[in-house]
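= Tokenised fold =
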Amino acid sequence: MINLYVGGNRDIPLLPEEATSIKERFNKESDGHEVLKLDMSCRQWKKASLDILESFLRSIAPTVRYVEFSDVIAGLMTDEGLEVTVQLAEIFEESDLLEIGLSDNAMGPRGLLRVESLFANSHLQRLYLSNCGLSFESMEMLKKSLVADDGRIANSMSELVLDRNMMGVDGARVVGEFLPLLKKLEYFSYQGCRPTDVGTKFLCEGILGLTKECQPVLRRIDMEDCTFGETEDDAIFPFSEALKKCPQLTHLNIIDGAIELEGLELLLNALKIARVKLSHLYLGKWIY
């Protein structure tokens, strides 16, 4: 099995002439081989260019398990960008995808709705949705996909990255609701989403809920720019209680977490109780 990469200069839109050349190269590279991964990221895919490649992509779709479509619609008008995301989703809707990268695409709720077919037949393990213009409504859509078919995706998800989106407090609440369902979750990232103190508590209660549902396998948590506080009424309390049950944790990032001294004491005590062997601990600013 092989991997296919588009490559090229990310600052230059991918025009039909180059798409034709890429199709020829892909045909040669894949001759006699099944394609496991397709990386089309960091190029602007105009619809006319994607149309040229579509027949080839459909031919390899049954074996593809990993797709990287990050930053493929930057600079396109909204309607064309949505058309491109829909087209990609339809091409791979029958694929049993294990990893989907959609970061840095200004999709918003409409875009996420249009790529739902990517989740239709997958046993998804890794989903990357950083900087996609996602909202509270987007998280409701994501929750719906996770719980569909008796939690087919929720039961397989190991990595979820939602960085640099503005879902607000309500979005954080929805994420907190579905986190306990992700029993195989090893990596959770919610950096730069500014959920405020209320939203951060929803997220931490979700992580705590996960520890009550199963023996968690969390290895990495990135919650930079969240607000943890220091008392039993703040997010730091459920977060610390959850960490006590996460002995496999190796990476913790809570930079700019507004953790005061009593909160820091709760955190460090929880890590001690869990007997974690951290390789990375990021606290940074906003510790009083």
About this structure: The first strand starts at residue 2 and ends at 5. The two ends are 53 Å apart (CA to CA). The chain has a mean pLDDT of 93.
